[in-house]
Amino acid sequence: MSFNSRYLIKIQSKNQVVMPSKLRDSEESDAMPKNYYLFSEDFIEVDSEKESELSRRIMMYPLNIWNEVVQKMEDRLRKANVKEVGKQIKIMRSSAKKVELDTQNRFTLKKELIDLVGIRDKEVYFVGSGSKVEIWDKASFEILINQYATNIKQTFKDFVDDL
């Protein structure tokens, strides 16, 4: 399953958000999963103010992909001879928040998550990013787009010119 595109979604009452229908309607044979894990590096930061505002987002992994991510992280830490791998993985797993889409494909963004990654408006971007979806504060994502738009346009132009 591969997630692509971006969608601006309003946060509804009780901090509920609807998974965008275009993200749900996969052209692949896999049925759209209902269970996800929400994770951000900010979840395990003691002082999230140190983190760049433009890297703060919530990553939304389907359950099966989340398990692969954790296993790859554990393997990478072991290969690098990182001490106390088990404790680090435990913290990573315990920092993730499980959500399940309801019958209307909604889930609740807990206030602690909203505050932690700096979502200030009642709108968020759902951004397809391969095997995961990223949830961004509207203003932060638009700043990111504007910062990199010129570079992306030039890179794409160079790529097309080389074809």
What does this structure look like?
With 163 residues, this protein is of the alpha+beta class. The chain has a single domain (6-162), classed as 3-Layer(aba) Sandwich (Chemotaxis protein chec). Helices cover 39% and strands 23% of the residues. The strands form two sheets. Strands 1-7-8-4-3-5 form a six-stranded antiparallel sheet. Strands 2-6 form a two-stranded antiparallel sheet. A hairpin with a 2-residue loop joins strand 7 and strand 8. Helix 2 (63-79) runs antiparallel to helix 3. The longest helix has 25 residues, at 138-162. The chain is globular, with a radius of gyration of 17 Å.
**Overall number of domains:** 1
Task: Give the overall shape, derived from the CA principal axes.
Answer: globular
In terms of DSSP E residues, the strand content is 15-25%
Arithmetic mean of pLDDT? 82
Q: In percent, how helical is the residue content?
A: 25-40%
Biggest beta sheet summary:
6 strands, antiparallel
Number of helices: 5
- What is the alpha-carbon Rg in Å? 17 Å
Give the strand order of the largest sheet, numbering strands 1, 2, ... along the chain. Answer: 1-7-8-4-3-5
